[in-house]
Amino acid sequence: MSQRQLRPERLMTFKKTLTAAALAIAICLPFSFDTAHSTGKPGTDFRQVGTASWYGPGLHGKKTASGARFDQNKLTAAHRSLPLNTVVKVTNLENGKAVKVKVNDRGPYAKKRVIDLSRAAARKLDMTDDGTARVRIEVAEYPASDQTASSN
């Protein structure tokens, strides 16, 4: 018997341990990255729940991903995957307040966040003091070119 071979009883223990570890990873993996979840894809009925944050003074006047200048006093947002110029309804799940914003930027870049809101939008949701809030995002209106593409 070579040194690399395991005895049958050790091999059985190793297999059980490996199986238990694989099962634990498969069960826990979805919960380890982000508590956000979404249903649908851009182009269908999109809904997402997760943590929102807001940004304002430091980026005011800078160019957004859409090419527009960021105005912290307008109702805008940054989202990773929704088409630019999509209008979404964002609802603060802690207090029920809601606001419609236009996605004109990309982000958020902080892990475990699903949307970055302008200061004006954060005020409407009453979340400026806390800095973050648990929200639901629903598409209210896709940009005109995407609406025609998704309806065909």
UniProtKB/TrEMBL annotation:
<protein>
    <recommendedName>
        <fullName>Endolytic peptidoglycan transglycosylase RlpA</fullName>
        <ecNumber>4.2.2.-</ecNumber>
    </recommendedName>
</protein>
<comment type="function">
    <text>Lytic transglycosylase with a strong preference for naked glycan strands that lack stem peptides.</text>
</comment>
<comment type="similarity">
    <text>Belongs to the RlpA family.</text>
</comment>
<keyword id="KW-0456">Lyase</keyword>
<dbReference type="InterPro" id="IPR012997">
    <property type="entry name" value="RplA"/>
</dbReference>
<dbReference type="InterPro" id="IPR009009">
    <property type="entry name" value="RlpA-like_DPBB"/>
</dbReference>
<feature type="signal peptide">
    <location>
        <begin position="1"/>
        <end position="36"/>
    </location>
</feature>
<keyword id="KW-0961">Cell wall biogenesis/degradation</keyword>
<feature type="domain" description="RlpA-like protein double-psi beta-barrel">
    <location>
        <begin position="48"/>
        <end position="137"/>
    </location>
</feature>
<dbReference type="InterPro" id="IPR034718">
    <property type="entry name" value="RlpA"/>
</dbReference>
<dbReference type="InterPro" id="IPR036908">
    <property type="entry name" value="RlpA-like_sf"/>
</dbReference>
<dbReference type="Pfam" id="PF03330">
    <property type="entry name" value="DPBB_1"/>
</dbReference>
<keyword id="KW-0732">Signal</keyword>
